[in-house]
Design brief:
This protein is an all-alpha fold. It contains 9 helices and no strands. The longest helix is centred in the last third of the chain and has 57 residues.
């Protein structure tokens, strides 16, 4: 009776694998966002007569008039930009060092030819998530081949299980911080709506007071509403683009893994006729 061997433990992806404590990024971006709003946009040079409470002299002064909500929207905007950069490098590491389509085609050809030495060599060159998962699947393929205690169906099931388990171990690295980006997609719009409502409240208060003396308050309220609407929509737009871009990247990696996993299991099935 052959001795059952265990597959080698999954290798950890080398290189940058992402920022686990994303709240740190959020705090830093909050400090940066409110600093930009107060010190840059609120610079006295951006207002007529150097008075923040007066009329804005340029676009920065106009945006400052959007109120404290502008700082919150800037926080969200800076956060999604930072997380986009973080996801870019993390997913780049996970994608490996070879072209994904070429690697998939080459490793499938090697597996179908049962040239596992070449397949492993390709995985070593590829590295990253795809390389690690395929390594585990190949290791299980070779393990079950020497196990005479299992039937063919059970061996195929073990190959598929090893592939799925390796994939699940790698998925947290790919999905990390994507939930925060998806949340910002909605928060940007909701924060814009909140700022718009505050601005309109100020406008209606100015109208209820009546008289030409309140025209400045009416103008400030309208500016606050429009500035928050525009900046919030911009933030949601950026967040949506970032989220969809990296979701597509993750889907491509997942599809490639599924394709290779199916090939490994199908190769074993076609090369072994025993029940």
């Amino acid at each position: 009776m052959a001795t059952t061997q265990k597959a080698a433990p999954a290798k950890k992806s080398s290189g940058f694998t992402g920022v686990k404590d994303a709240w740190i990024i959020l705090v830093i971006c909050a400090i940066a966002g409110y600093s930009v709003w107060y010190f840059v946009m609120g610079n006295p040079d951006n207002f007529v007569g150097g008075d923040r409470t007066g009329h804005p002299a340029n676009l920065l002064g106009t945006v400052y008039k959007g109120g404290f909500v502008v700082g919150l929207i800037l926080t969200l905007l800076f956060t999604v930009i930072c997380l986009g950069i973080e996801r870019f490098f993390a997913i780049k590491t996970a994608s490996g060092k070879m072209n994904l389509a070429k690697f998939t085609a080459d490793v499938k050809a090697a597996i179908k030819a049962q040239d596992f030495a070449k397949a492993k060599s390709l995985c070593d060159k590829m590295q990253g998530t795809v390389g690690n998962v395929v390594q585990q699947s190949i290791a299980m393929y070779q393990t079950v081949e020497t196990d005479d205690t299992l039937k063919k169906a059970a061996k195929i099931a073990k190959i598929q299980q090893a592939h799925e388990e390796a994939t699940q171990l790698e998925m947290p690295t790919l999905q990390m911080n994507m939930a925060m980006i998806a949340t910002i997609v909605s928060l940007g719009t909701l924060t814009a709506l909140f700022g718009t409502v505050l601005g309109m409240i100020g406008s209606f208060q100015a109208l209820s007071a009546g008289g030409g003396a309140d025209s400045m308050a009416l103008s400030a309220g309208i500016s606050e509403a429009l500035v928050n609407t525009a900046s919030g929509i911009l933030t949601s737009w950026v967040a949506t683009v970032v989220y969809n871009f990296f979701s597509n990247k993750i889907d491509k990696l997942t599809y490639a893994l599924d394709e290779i996993g199916f090939t490994i299991a199908a190769t074993y099935d076609s090369n072994h006729n025993e029940a």
